[in-house]
Specification:
The protein is α/β, with parallel strands linked by helices. The chain has 3 domains: 202 residues, FAD/NAD(P)-binding domain; 111 residues, FAD/NAD(P)-binding domain (3-Layer(bba) Sandwich), CATH 3.50.50.60; 99 residues, FAD/NAD-linked reductase, C-terminal dimerisation domain (Enolase-like, domain 1). It is built from 11 helices and 21 strands. Strands 1, 2, 3, 4, 5, 6 and 16 form a 7-stranded mixed β-sheet that branches. Strands 17-18-21-20-19 form a 5-stranded antiparallel β-sheet, sandwiched between helices. A 4-stranded parallel β-sheet has the order 10-9-8-14, covered by helices on one side. Helix 1 packs parallel to helix 8, helix 3 packs antiparallel against helix 4 and helix 3 runs parallel beside helix 6. The relative contact order is 0.13.
Length: 448
């Protein structure tokens, strides 16, 4: 008889867990994955995928606003939130089915229960069943954090935004990160009155400050109200169902909904990690080495639960590398240098590599090339919105240290640019490349 019930038992069927499960199974391992909610994880079920669909839906407002100048007459235009909401959620159902089908096709057993660890090789399911595994992988992701103030129970997180019964007429978004700015842009475009309340005067920390400043300027021009140095004291529910938000100012702000988007914390509570001696770090994140192994030799962890880089593509790569290392006889690690990222705000921004301030602090002598331009598409808009592209270059070698941009389709443009930064190309390499005209992307090879 086999020493263990499974070669690999995965807790959490998100992006990292699903990839690790199917790759390990393809290497011949007997694999089971336990998921207490829905297969697909945060990104597919209540994160980047449905949120990007909401972004697309909201962008029609701007497009329809330009239609007349393009010669189109659109009569009786209106927006219905339940129609968009239900379409998005139906597609989430479709994607969840595809993820489950992928696991089934690879012979992975999916157990729709919560699982906890009872020891280095032991797992207990919510049903009471206990199983063993040679290797355990924790891929439980993260959850939205909530502050502690009176009335916080009246507020919601990003998880609930996809299921709102009605579109809020007035929405307050608390936070200054990418989740806060993306939802603010979505609902402002859909016609809601949106206020962003942030406890400091900085939003989107980690992105180039000049790029963020441009995005902030455009967002304010579109009608989003920003309240900096604003810390909520309490939220009260009025008799008419509206929420009164008190942030210490003269009069409370009256809104229909308060979205708390101040960050995410690893899902490690109640997993039983202490029974196997798994060490935790800041905010309860699981500590792992370069091969994703924890302080317990038989237990590994990937994705947001490790709080290294909270990005879906990173979790997928970590899960794949883990499976190749442990079950494919091909030890692999992940290079976390020059990971591109984007914020699907309106307008979107994206970046890869060092920001200008980071580059100056590290290299000292750097050159900054930029293009401040009005995208051709924006000529049809009443708002004189301008895009901004920046390239940070080591003055000595000419090597590109970072590229940052804000403007239409920034994320799409950035993906190709990120390859160049990762490959260590120089400004001269970009200068030698012929532009595709007329495009926004051509600005990258025309930077001055």
């Amino acid at each position: 008889m086999a020493e263990y019930d499974y070669d690999l038992f995965v807790i959490g069927a998100g992006s990292g867990g699903v990839r690790a499960s199917r790759v390990a199974a393809s290497h011949g391992a007997k694999v089971a994955v336990a998921e207490e909610y829905r297969v697909g994880g945060t990104c597919v079920i209540r994160g980047c995928v449905p949120k990007k669909m909401l972004v697309y839906g909201s962008m029609f407002a701007e497009e329809l606003g330009h239609a007349e100048r393009f010669g189109w007459t659109v009569e009786g235009k209106s927006f219905d939130w339940p129609t968009l909401r239900d379409f998005v959620n139906r597609d989430v159902d479709r994607l969840e089915g595809l993820y489950g089908q992928t696991l089934d096709n690879h012979g992975v057993e999916v157990i729709p229960e919560r699982a906890t660890i009872t020891g280095p090789h032991g797992i207990r399911l919510a049903s009471g069943r206990e199983v063993t595994a040679k290797v355990i992988l924790v891929a439980t992701g993260a959850h939205p954090t909530m502050p502690d103030f009176p009335g916080v129970e009246h507020c919601i997180t990003s998880n609930e935004m996809f299921h709102l019964a009605e579109q809020p007429r007035c929405l307050m978004v608390v936070g200054g990160g990418y989740i806060a700015l993306e939802f603010a842009g979505i609902f402002q475009a859909l016609g809601s009155e949106v206020t962003v309340a942030n406890r400091t005067d900085r939003i989107l920390r980690g992105y180039d400050e000049q790029i963020v400043e441009r995005m902030l300027h455009v967002a304010m021009g579109r009608g989003i109200n920003f309240r900096m140095h604003s810390l909520i004291q309490k939220v009260e529910k009025a008799d008419d169902g509206c929420l009164l938000v008190d942030s210490g100012e003269t009069n409370p702000v009256k809104v229909d909904q308060v979205l708390i988007a101040i960050g995410r914390a690893p899902n490690t509570a109640g997993l039983g990690l202490e029974t196997a001696g798994v060490d935790l770090g800041k905010h309860g994140a699981i500590k792992v080495d370069e091969y994703n192994r924890t302080s317990c030799e038989s237990i590994y962890a990937v994705g947001d639960v490790t709080d290294r880089v909270q990005l879906t593509p990173v979790a997928i790569r970590e899960g794949h590398a883990f499976a190749d290392t442990v079950f494919g006889d091909n030890p692999r690690t992940i290079d976390y240098h020059a990971i591109p990222s984007a914020v699907f705000s309106q307008p979107p921004l994206a970046g890869v590599g060092l920001t200008e301030s980071q580059a100056r602090a590290t290299y000292g002598n750097v050159k900054v090339y930029s293009s401040d331009f009005r995208p051709m598409k924006n000529i049809f808009s009443d708002h004189p919105e301008r895009g901004l592209y920046k390239m940070i270059v080591d003055a000595t070698s000419g090597k590109i240290l970072g590229i940052h941009m804000v403007g239409p389709e920034s994320a799409e443009v950035m993906q190709a640019a990120a390859v160049a930064v990762k490959a260590g190309l120089t400004k001269a390499d970009f200068d030698a490349t012929v532009a595709i005209h007329p495009t926004m992307a051509e600005e990258l090879v025309l930077l001055k």
